[in-house]
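Database export, one record per block. Field names are fixed; values are copied verbatim from the stored entry.
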Amino acid sequence: MLAAALAAAGACAQAWPVRPVTLVVGFAAGGGADVVARVFAESLAPVLGVAVLVENRPGAGGIIGGEFVARAAPDGHTLLVGGLGPNATAHSLYPAIRYDTLRDFAHITLISENANALALHPSIPAATIPELVALARKRPGALSFGSAGNGSAQHMAGELFRIQIGTRLVHVPFKGVAAGLNDLLAGRIEMMFLPASDAARYTEEGKLRVLGVTTRTRSPALPSIPPIAQAGLPGYEQTVWNALLAPARTPEAVVGALHAAAVKALAAGSRARRRSTTRCSSGILTWSACSTATSMSTGAGSSCRGSPRSIASRCARGSMAGSAAASRRASCARRRRRPVGR
């Protein structure tokens, strides 16, 4: 059936691809999104029969890369490896953002879903989540956490952690995970939410201490590390996802051919295309609720508005609303003939 779909899509898009396909990543080389893109590119190239290149355009929490692809020629040769930061949270943090994830991109497929891990520099006197929470509450504003940039998945993980423990942490944005990781290893920042695979490597070497992962279940990359929700902060959860997006107005035949090729490369189910749209839509709604509840800004050390319990409740309601409303919003977009994946 997959072979038939590829053949049918290929017949409708005979002129594609005519040159190498470029996957744009809005973060610096070496970070989680970059690794996902490069592994995916290796699998996608033999399926398409052309080279698949990865181009890093870091800055503004992934927005620079997103804007570049949104304005690219809609011919299927320039694609975005999008994610939670640039395609969901950015809409709340950057009012002047120059693209709309649901309107300005054709959604091809979900590429990956992974965990972040809460990693500390070994000098920090905390070996468990409760010990870290107690330390942060004892010294408000004394602990800093790094991220891959304002609005990135790591930033959001840190903000959610700060919200739930009800104290002040200083956010230090970097131009990608790798830059933040360097400062964490050097002890210039105290903590950072890292892709679990990155955290595993440095934990094994004794250079970092990992206290928990952000997903509700354990990560295969860190099987001995419990979820943060089970390690002392009930209700905490964040899943990091990456999706393949094309510029709006990319011909449906090309989008279909890309989807079929990506499914083959990933050995994934065809529902991944719909899940990409749902992830983006629900993420926009969820983090909009959180940023409104906390008055979250793109600066360091943003402050809470309201009690931690009320803020967490509003974020949870936003999450539930996002899940319930995602399909409705995507359905409305399709009825308005927006180029959103089916």
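Remark 1: The radius of gyration is 20 Å.
Remark 2: The beta strands are 21-25, 52-56, 78-83, 105-114, 116-120, 144-147, 170-173, 191-195, 209-213, 240-247.
End of record.
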